């Protein structure tokens, strides 16, 4: 059940990140979320058994699933660091990349020596007493623990510098999620060592902690990362509706101030009679520009406007400017 909750949360994150695709030039955070979602979807028993059956039924599906997790966390951390502190992202780029390559190579090497002849939905529980299996898990979660620890620290440190309240809150939640992920990695390391040395009471203790921490880490990270695009979408929807509401008044003002100037009465204007605006933001912006151009061309046209009209122009220009800054 927990595996299903984790997978649903991650695919929900993918959907939330997809909302802001048009506004983002860097889509690496979305690609990273997809990789992690695919990786942890493979933890669902039915999915894992089907995938491993295709690969021969000897737990070969576990390796690509964990490599996807490794790459996903690597790219996710890079994207988060670029958003929070570009200078720190640049400083950690080479160490993170080298670490990912070394870790992936060690994972492949150690996996070859694991004797896991039958498909298992509890891979480490069944085969974790083998030194090769313990090493396979240890190298992976040691790297992941280091990466998320650095990422979480920088998120919490620079969250206050984010441009919007949603981003500030989101980065704080992500930082907290990274803290839970570090504890998750430590619990996995504890399980690996306890299993290989036969300390079963400790294994049970670490396993209980892992179940709670892993779920908490995933939910916090998904919530924190999805918060900015979701709230941004809600805010943009509200702003667009407000712009749509004032567009008739802006069009009336546009007609008033440009009535005497044929060159400004372009029938291709996006809100000319009979035309329906496809993008209200662009329509409003162009209307404002043409109104200001008309007022510059003929200052006396201002006399045809009321104080309410002038206030509407100023308020709309402020709203358009705020929208472009937030993007």
Give a quick rundown of the structure.
The protein is mainly α and 327 residues long. The protein has helices spanning 2-19, 28-41, 45-55, 62-84, 86-112, 123-127, 131-158, 165-196, 200-258, 280-297, 307-326. The protein contains eleven helices and no strands.
Observed structural traits:
78% helix, single chain, elongated, 11 helices, mainly alpha, 327 residues
Protein described:
With 327 residues, this protein is mainly alpha-helical. Helix content is 78%, strand content 0%. It contains 11 helices and no strands. It has helices at residues 2-19, 28-41, 45-55, 62-84, 86-112, 123-127, 131-158, 165-196, 200-258, 280-297, 307-326. Helix 9 packs antiparallel against helix 11 (307-326). The two termini are 38 Å apart. 34% of the residues are buried. Residues 261-277 have low confidence and may be disordered.
Which stretches are poorly predicted, pLDDT < 50 over at least 5 residues?
261-277
Structural class determined from secondary elements: mainly alpha
Distance between the termini: 38 Å
Report strand %.
under 5%
Counting H and I runs of at least 4 residues, what is the number of helices? 11
Major sheet characteristics:
none
Shape: elongated
- How many DSSP E strands? 0
Rounded to the nearest angstrom, the radius of gyration is 27 Å
Secondary-structure element order, N to C: HHHHHHHHHHH
